[in-house]
Amino acid sequence: MQDARCRIRGKQRMIWEKVITNMQKGSDKLMAAAATFSERIRAELNIVRLRIRIDNVQERVNEQYQLIGHTLVELNNAGSLPKLTEHLFQDEKIAAPLIEIVALEKELDRLNDEIKNEASVFRPTAKQAEETAP
To answer: Which site from 42, 68, 70, 129 is most exposed, i.e. has the minimal number of CB atoms within 10 Å?
Structure first.
């Protein structure tokens, strides 16, 4: 009778060891998925922030174009619109916004590059593929 009890206890221990091992493996997979999810959310938020900045910069570019157009209309209405294009771009009211547009376009390029860098987080690397493999 005692021998039967020892066998039952031995089987129960083996079952509990398997349960603990399986729970630990499940916990590890859950932690890996949570880390991946967290990284993805962080990258998504960064991309949203960058897109908002891009919209703001694009709005400033549009304002500069409107300023140039407004200046051209004023010059035309005043009858002082130069005949040559070179003279037109020498006007300070037009040259300054054009310089600002060039700077803003460089900033737009930089922000787009940052978005591309953030988007690279979404491409699974070999290490991530190994971690998520069953």
So the answer is: 129
The structural domain count of the chain equals 1
Helix (H, G, I), strand (E, B) or coil at 84: coil
Ramachandran region, residue 79 (left: φ > 0; alpha: ψ -120 to 50; beta: rest): left
DSSP state of 79: T
Q: Could you tell me if 121 and 40 are in contact, meaning their C-beta atoms sit under 8 angstroms apart?
A: yes
Residues in the chain: 134
What pTM value is reported for the model?
A: 0.65
Q: Rounded CA gap, 37 and 29, in Å?
A: 12
pLDDT band at 117 (very low <50, low <70, confident <90, very high): confident
Q: How do the residues of the chain divide into helix, strand and coil, expressed in percent and rounded to 5? A: 90, 0, 10
Question: Alpha carbon of 105 to those of 2, 32, 48, 83, 94: distances in Å?
Answer: 85, 40, 19, 29, 17
